[in-house]
Each structure stands twice: as structure tokens, then as C-alpha cells.
Amino acid sequence: xHLKTILRASLALAVLAAxxxxxxxxxxxxxxxxxxxxxxxxxxxxxxxxxxxxVVKSGVSLDAAVAALRRGRSYSANVGRxxxxxxxxxxxxxxxxxxxxxxxxxxxSRRYQVRVQLHGGVGRAEPPDATRVGxxxxxxxxxxxxxxxxxxxxSLWWQQSQVDNLLKILDTLKRTYNVDENRVYLTGISxxxxxxxxxxxxxxxxxxxxxxxxxxxxxxxxxEVGADGELFPGNAVNKPFFVVNAGRDRLYPAxxxxxxxxxxxxxGGDVAFHVKGESDHNTNWWPEERADYEAFVDxxxxxxxxDKLSWETERVDRYNRAHWLVIDRLGDVAGQSTxxxxxxxxxxxxxxxxxxxxxxxxxxxxxxxAVANSNAYRIGVRTGDLIVEVDGRPxxxxxxxxxxxxxxxxxxxxxxxxxxxxQRQALQGPFQPGEVESPxxxxxxxxxxxxxxxxARHGNVVEASTHGVRAFALLLSPSxxxxxQPVRVVANGRTVFDARVEPSVATLLKWAAxxxxxxxxFGAEVNIDLTK
Length: 532
Prior knowledge:
The structure is a single chain. The protein is of the alpha+beta class. The chain has four domains: 3-71; 82-302, Alpha/Beta hydrolase fold, catalytic domain (Rossmann fold); 326-343 and 443-529, no CATH class; 349-437, PDZ domain (Pdz3 Domain, Roll). 26% of the residues lie in helices and 29% in strands. The chain has eleven helices and 27 strands. The protein has helices at residues 3-40, 45-50, 52-57, 62-71, 160-176, 191-202, 254-266, 286-299, 375-379, 398-405, 505-515; strands at residues 82-89, 95-102, 112-118, 144-149, 179-189, 209-213, 241-246, 271-276, 308-313, 321-322, 325-330, 344-345, 349-352, 355-357, 367-370, 386-390, 393-394, 413-420, 423-430, 434-437, 441-442, 451-458, 461-467, 469-476, 487-491, 494-499, 524-529.
């Protein structure tokens, strides 16, 4: 046979042999792409979870799946802009309506920050009109998506129904608009500010920072408020806070709120606390605070995979996760760490004027005890006196008295008018209080035992200090861990895991379906049982 003929025949055989394989590879690539797009195009978390198996069965590699999830879905320009309305049912069947505002110049190729604003006055019996819940009250920058949920007596900001509502809203927005997952901020006014504290203590993962305005975290400790479960101030250290309170606020005056905000700072929290000294319970100060507020927001994007975490919870069916940490079982174990109780407020030395009141007697104006040899006693106040004026101003309640006392400085003149045996007497003298060590105050009531885990990651080594936890899981991101090397977990000074971890597409997609987050992907789980 001629050489050219032989070469021609061999080439033909090679083409025939290669063609079926080439067609098969192309079909696999197309199937993988379809499965990934179906997953990314899911309408909600439940639908995405149902599509995980199809993606796994497509044979996609871990690297390819990670790359596709980081790129995310393709966003349409044909979406609603301006003021939009949304609604859904939460897990408990309650219908929730909300308003959101999208920039008119929305560009699907850009990522947009989201600001969720929680309104005040949540005690009303019926849901408020979702088209009027604070829209435009705190105008922000033009390039943000603003969200205005609604709360009422049957669905308060500090209840599971609202946690589910807010998470559903974020998930829906992220599936329609190009949201910057690391710039999602939670702002609240009055009851909404209190709700922002609740989310920081219970559901921190999706938020970049918390911005409670004229709110008060201690409201959540009252049984009448009905907060869902127990509150853990130490959980606030995971995110920054921008807090504003007013000096003349009749509900939550700044001097009452200050010790608790400063407590978050002492725990290690990044907290900016601004006091509007002459303001009452309103946001009339917004124009003068807006620049600082916007600068804070700009400076504090979320770290989706922080190297340090601290989380405490009393339950493991919800509120048991912070980013890449999941607490699975509670209970004491041998060798656990002793961790400082973040629920104890240590006030240290305080001034004591020497007056004791009872709010149930004469609205708190009747002196139930003038401590012997105290500053008040030396001025002339006696047990049984009725305080009627302080520094020339009539007082009607104990709060009025305390508000005036907060203005005193050591050495300043004190002027009181008391009613004693039906006669009024004017008393005066210098403010020279004693200093007393205040006992530690329990901030929130405790009913159930809780567990806490503090984490610090150094490369492939994770150090954990635990108390009241029997088992927890670590979610490992390919952005932070080198899966070609062993992962070591040291808990309470003891190595509890030291091995190579095999990442999987199934694990990657399980968490991607839940989180819907291009910047927070997990390729493997390490389950730690501290009882072994």
C-alpha cells in the first residue's frame, strides 16, 4: 500500500475512534452547565436544595463547581426598579408584606449594598401598611437597595417569625438582584433598634454590621416582651455596631443605655456610640449624623469567613450557627474551658448619693431610705420625705429625679425641695457622693443551660475553647483551608482532629443552597465530638 494511503487510512480510523469520545465529553459539559444553571436559578432555598443531587450526578468537579458558584447567576436588567412590593409566608404560615426600593439606574453587572430598616412601634394589633413603614425616613446613598419590612404584635422583630421573614427577604433579593453579600446592613429605630440587637445576639451570619438607633437591648430581657429564647451579649463581638441614643429620650435615655453599650465594647466589640444630648425619642438628628453613619457603613463590610468567632446558644435547632461554626450538641465535658460570662455587667465603682426609692410608692418620689451619713443625709434628706423639686424643677416621677441627678458633677450645688409632715422644706449642699462597688448585674434572665465556642484559625489549624458544648461542626472553605494538607483542631488544649479532609461537591452545594452567597462557600465539614 502506498505510504500516503496508509496515513490517510490511519487518520480516518483515528477520527472514527475519537468522535464518540468527543461527543460524550461535550454532552457531559452541557449537562454540567444545565445542572449548575438550574441550581443557580432556583426560586428559593428549598428549590435549590432539591437540585443538589442533579448537580452531583452531573459529574462536575469541585473546582468547577466552586468557580461556578463564585461567579454566581446571570442577573437580568429587566427587573423592577423604584419602590417595589414583596410578600411571602413564613414557616408559621404568617403573611408578611414588605417594601423595597431599587435604584432607577440599577445595573445588573454591579453589586449593590442592601440596607434593611426596622421600624418602631411594633405593638399594634394589625400589620402596618408596608408602603409606609419608614420609607425615606433615613435617606441613604443612591446606590443601595433599601428594604422596609413590617412588624406588629403577632410578629415582633425579636421572634422567630421575623427572623425567618428577614432571611427570606434577603434570599429573594439575592436571587433577583445583584446584591453585594458582604454589604448587607441592619438598621432599626426604637423597637427596630432593639430588634437589631436581637439579630446580633441570635442570627449574625448574613449581616455586615448592626446600626440600632434610639433602641435599648435590655428591653429584650423583660418576659412581657416575648423575645424568642435567651440572649447572649457576647455574640455581639462578631460584628461592628453603630449606636445612637438621645440624652432627653423619655423611653431609653442615653445614660441608661450607655453602660450596656460600653459592656459590648469591653467584651471586645467594635462599637461606635453617639449621644445626641438635647434630643428626645426621635431621629431629628439624622442630618447631622448621616455623614458619620455612611462613613461607618462604608468602612465595615462583612468578613464572610472571619478567622475568629465566638458564639453561644441554648438550643441547637436554630440560632446555633455563626458563619463557619455550628453548635450541634450541648452539655458539659471533661476538660472544658472556663469562659467569662458575657451576661454579667460589671459597673465597677459608682457614685452613691444615698437615696433609695420604690417605684410603687408615690411614683418613686417618696424616699424609702436616706442612708445614714450619706451625702443626701448630710444635706438634710430623711426617710419618708417626698421629693417635689430638684434644682428648681418640679418632679413627678423617680425618672425625673434620676434625670436631674445625672446632670450633677462632684462639687456642684444640689438644691432639693422635700415635703415632710405636710410642710415643704428647701435643702441644699454640695454633691459629694460616696463611691461604692456595684455588684455584677445579670443582663438577661437565664432559664436553660447554654453552650459557647470561641474559635481562632491559623492556616489549617483551628483552636477552640468551649464550655457547655459536647459537639460542634466546622465548615471549611477552600478560600481559607488547604485541602491538600491535614486540618488540625485543638479544643480546650487537646488535639481532637488531625487529618486530611476530603472536600465534596455535595457538601459545597448543601451549604450554597442554604446561604445563597458567592463569597461564603464550604467544601467540607469537620464534625467534632468532645465526648470522645
